[in-house]
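Pilot study result, target chain (354 residues):
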Amino acid sequence: AIHESELLTVPDGWKEPQFMKEDNPRGLLEESSFATLFPKYREAYLKECWPLVQKALGEIFINATLDLIEGSITVSTTKKTFDPYAIIRARDLIKLLARSVPFEQAVRILQDDMACDIIKIGTLVRNRERFVKRRQRLIGPKGSTLKALELLTNCYVLVQGNTVSALGPYSGLKEVRKVVLDTMKNIHPIYNIKTLMIKRELANNPDLRTQSWDRFLPNFRHKSLSKRQKPKKKKVKKEYTPFPPPQPESQVDRELASGEFFLRESEKRRRKMKEIKVKQAEALSRKQEERKKAFIPPKEKPAEKKTKKASTEDKLDIQAIKEKVKKAKNKKLGAPPPKPAAPPADGKKKKSRS
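Predicted structure:
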């Protein structure tokens, strides 16, 4: 019995048989055609390589016309066309040529195992500067990132304006699309390239064909960006009430409450003047107090305590000096011999001083 996993895998060295004239001897029933516009800057190149394009398409019996006035290329089937998929390949060829892919690369789309993908990246990033930066990141320094991607996916990749054109086997195109879209989502292509390198190594091991590769693949985590700062004081929302707040009292309401509203005009004026005079008197007394402050002498600390402390300290110092002198005399380190009459004289002098 053949194992199920063996049925799902394509045998090594398998090649799809080519579609020949004998497979469809009567040709196609109706004419199909596709057209595409190309930019003005592409005109010179297309004019130069057009004979080669016609020759390549002529081999699969596809008719191609170049309209330089309108700026378009049209491909259509002929009575001799036998391969129904040939027109789709021709359509992809003119699409690639319009997207600045060189003819030598674009012509490979006519092969059976080749496919192409034109990835639109122009609308993925709003900010133009950011878009240019990320697109450059995909190309890398001196095109190294793009070259690595091409080698790992076996695809030809061209970054041009707002699109990325890729040409190669289906499995490779799938990877290219993922890398391109991730780069535009601000995931550096080097992470995906590293994963692709590991996958390539794992693919060489036949034992791992039926196993999950998750344990081997790196798990790149996003760096947690600084969270939004929360305010120190949180405002507590009041409970919703359907009733509006009470109306503030007007001047008239206040006057009615105090009975002032019913007074005569002259009485009102007299009251107002009285209030103003009271306020003025308060302000004047306040100012006078502030002026007087400058003439109030500051409180002095009592001077007696300081002198007492000083005297006690001096006494202590004198005694310490005396002891030091005595010690020096006792040691007699090169000092002259003490005179017997000297100590009483000191005492006398001290007595007279006191």
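One observation from the pilot: The two ends are 133 Å apart (CA to CA). A full batch analysis is planned for the follow-on phase.
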